[in-house]
């Protein structure tokens, strides 16, 4: 006869309400874990979409994600000639804000050379950019659709393809366009400023700069060898794909990750305290029943089982409901929430441990209940 | 101490004492209490509040260790200046049945399960325990309330279910704490008749702590307690 289950069934409404309250709290813990993973996934999304083995940037810079970088536009040709480099492509990156259907979008524009490395690896709809001008590939998160026209700068662009989940480390959507379009958008002066510069006789500065050059390396040549070769040129720095990944996850988002980790720890502790208080209160409510059980000869394990099983049922139910809520509503969160099975399993174990620890207070009270209290009128 | 066991003595107590606190705060709850209760007897323990009735009941229930003396329950010496049995819980489960003033039925179990619980604690299979519980509820004429929760019972019904639970393991010693306190005269009389019937049918000794004057005439013997002493029969 399972006393914990019978007691819960007897006060089902109260148990359900308690579980719902707890599920919101544990749901926030699960959300935090999801945001942490989502942040890491966001940080690596553009890197993965680019799928480059080597990143060549301005000397002394750790760009183009962590720091600013600007290299001459002909760097790609220099890199492409190195033994072991299969192909190379130039990239520009810039953040802009645009209005779309009355909605303000913050986006990152990646300029690349169509047909060379730097294009998005996977499209969910449409095609890659084939024209040298005025075509766009957008992420679904922007709400843009294939065939739609978008005004950027002084030009109008047509959306020809869609990606999914390609965002920056701050969660902004990425738009891809041809390198020349991106360079104009980034470096060309607005007409009044250009006229003013021309009037004062200043020489027009060139726009043939890029933020980075990416390269695909032959499978037979380690990227580190190429990196060493390029690093001999004093005006360039080189990062392998693995180094970029480390830079993004360990440095760029480290502080945010630690903050999320701290929130998770605090929330887990708060959950533990709340579960402990609930179990303690439930145990106090049952003092007379526990005394009666002891009086009629119930062993301690029966009484401890009653309390621990209730704490576990409460915690596990709260966790399951909370996780289900996060799964259902994660689409409405402004940031990506990435739910990995291993994280959910790990949090489940943490919840079980927290429930066991939290029930200790109730168990202590129950074990100390004097059976003679059953005789008190 | 070696003593011969009287033929039907189920509770034998010799020189039991118990005090709480020390120095000026010392209270002698039991002082050299000696009594014997035989099978098929319904015995009353009377006395004002603080006279030691509950302390004596707790000592017989093996949940309160006396300071000294000797006690034998159903032929087994359980206390001789110290507990002689390690597993007093099992002793309570096997030999002693409890009837509480407020019934103390577990509110989250129905009547059948309240009775069956004692049996499952003793190791019975659930099916057998349920069958025995239904048999007892029928014996106490509350089988029609078998599926009811304690909160749905009248005072008299709850007391009958509580008595059924006390009888579940066929104990030979039944301790009743104010068994009729919550009942009117008619129902109190019915319960006392029932306890008498049980004492004979189960060959058991029943010890009832009571303040209830209306049942005094239905007790076989009455022990009066004053300041921790048995003042007389």
Short précis:
The complex is a heterodimer of chains A (377) and B (233). Chain A has 377 residues and is α+β, with helices and mostly antiparallel strands.
Account of the protein in words:
The complex is a heterodimer of chains A (377) and B (233). Chain A contains eleven helices and twelve strands. The model of chain A has no long low-confidence stretch (mean pLDDT 87). In chain A, 40% of the residues are buried. In chain A, 51% of the residues lie in helices and 19% in strands. Chain A is an alpha+beta fold. In chain A, helix 2 crosses helix 7, helix 2 packs across helix 10 (300-329) and helix 10 (300-329) runs antiparallel to helix 11 (341-368). Chain A folds into two domains: 3-43 and 255-374, no CATH class; 60-234, no CATH class. In chain A, strand 7 and strand 8 (155-163) form a beta hairpin. Chain B is globular. A six-stranded mixed sheet of chain B has the order 6-7-8-3-9-10. In chain B, strands 2-1-4-5 form a four-stranded antiparallel sheet, covered by helices on one side. Chain B has a single domain (9-230), classed as Rossmann fold, CATH 3.40.50. Helix content of chain B is 30%, strand content 27%. In chain B, helix 3 (111-121) crosses helix 4 and helix 3 packs parallel to helix 5. Chain B is of the alpha/beta class. Chain B has six helices and ten strands.
Overall SS class of chain B: alpha/beta
Biggest β-sheet of chain B: count, sense, barrel? 6 strands, mixed
In the CATH scheme, the class of chain B would be Alpha Beta
What is the total number of structural domains of chain B? 1
Sheet with most strands: strand arrangement of chain B: 6-7-8-3-9-10
**CATH arch. level architecture of chain B:** 3-Layer(aba) Sandwich
Q: Tell me the quaternary state.
A: heterodimer
- How many beta-strand runs of chain A? 12
Enumerate the spans of chain A where pLDDT stays under 50 for 5 or more consecutive residues. none
Cα separation of the termini of chain B: 26 Å
Amount of helix of chain A? 40-55%
Helix content of chain B: 25-40%
